[in-house]
Amino acid sequence: MRLLVINDVSVVLGGATKVAMQCIDAATAAGMDCTVLVGDDGEEVRRNFPQAKVEALCERPLRDGVQAGDVVERNYNRRAYAALDNLLAASDEETVVHVHGWSQILSPSIFHALSRHGARVIVTAHDFFLTCPNGGYLNFRSGEVCGHRPMSLGCLTSNCDKRNYLHKLWRVGRMLTQQSAGDEFWSRVEVILAHENMEPYLSGGALRHFLTLRSPCKPLTRGPAKAWRNDRMLFLGRMTWEKGVRTLAEALNKTGRPATLIGRGPLLKEMQSALPHCHVPGWLDDSEVDRLASESRFFVMPSRMPEPYGLVAAEAVMSGIPVIVSSNALIAEEVARNDAGLVFESGNADSLAEKIALMDNDDLVRHLSEGAYEYGKRIAPSNDEWRQRILDIYRGHTGASLH
């Protein structure tokens, strides 16, 4: 058996690429014949996994700036199609293909290449691009979770895009390209969900086979944090509107509480300007994140979109750091049920400010910290458990039928 891992980029800046690299690590450690197709230069894969074969397109992701040719290439990347078609031509019947990210560089052309071959295809749903044109089931104009059926008339006429309606139409065109790989192809694709609550967003169309495998994660800190002894809030993630950083900034200015916001993104400078009483350093290395996390009183995940999982929230919980999460987060209900944190109304700065103020209570923070640490033991599989599970999936031994 040969494993072919596909992802837009090789540099870990988000959860999808992090999991893709963990898949490569598990496969190569198990002695599998592993090939990786990436849209960027692939240097991070070559450096970290010298035993893996790498096919790299050396192209730029859309988030680094849109170029004129991207209108066509990011809808149907012919170089990506040709590269994948060639990789599959040798031994497609013995190949398992695991797709992670494709919306930034590789485009839906990869699914057309896959549809021509008999390789087994697995896609991990790190977001909702399998069904939703903008990938988030979020109306970026209203801030509300979208209730339209993807690609319905209501969806097509909704100006929900973060840029403009013309860009929404481009996304619709890309979705049509994706769907045109054919129902016969999509009905055989196996979808790994990062969280079980993602399934209602992805089912109902051509996709038929789902299983849940929560992504592995490790605590943000080396040991359980004494959160009730600390005084600073922590945010860790991309500085974008959909991640809720503007809501967070408004709530922090209402309360005047100190906070540390770590991350990169288009709103970084805006956050630095809007929060002069907070520490907003940009991106930091792991050791510095560890130090700042150990000094944190609680963690906030203010996402406006239906956050599929929220790895960093799970990492905080595993560290005994209570979390305040948006009601749109798919883990919100379990956070509240397990006394691991609080839930605020998505996009409502007053609601978030209220929850932040509650965290001044040392007894409450200690109760939630202890609840978080206990729940953290169950929130995700251990690294060893996850590695064994992903290898079993590759080998066709799922332990339970796809549903």
From TrEMBL:
Alphabetical keyword list: Transferase
Segments traversing the membrane: none
Limits of the Glycosyl transferase family domain: 232-373
SUPFAM superfamilies: UDP-Glycosyltransferase/glycogen phosphorylase
Disulfide bond is among the record's keywords: no
Source species, domain of life: Bacteria
Transferase listed as a keyword: yes
GO molecular function (one): glycosyltransferase activity
CDD domains per UniProt: GT4_PimA-like
Gene3D superfamilies assigned to the protein according to its UniProt record, in alphabetical order: Glycogen Phosphorylase B
Pfam families reported in the protein's UniProt record: Glycos_transf_1 (PF00534)
InterPro entries registered for this protein in UniProt: Glyco_trans_1, Glycosyltransferase_grp1
PANTHER family: SULFOQUINOVOSYL TRANSFERASE SQD2
Protein name: Glycosyltransferase family 4 protein
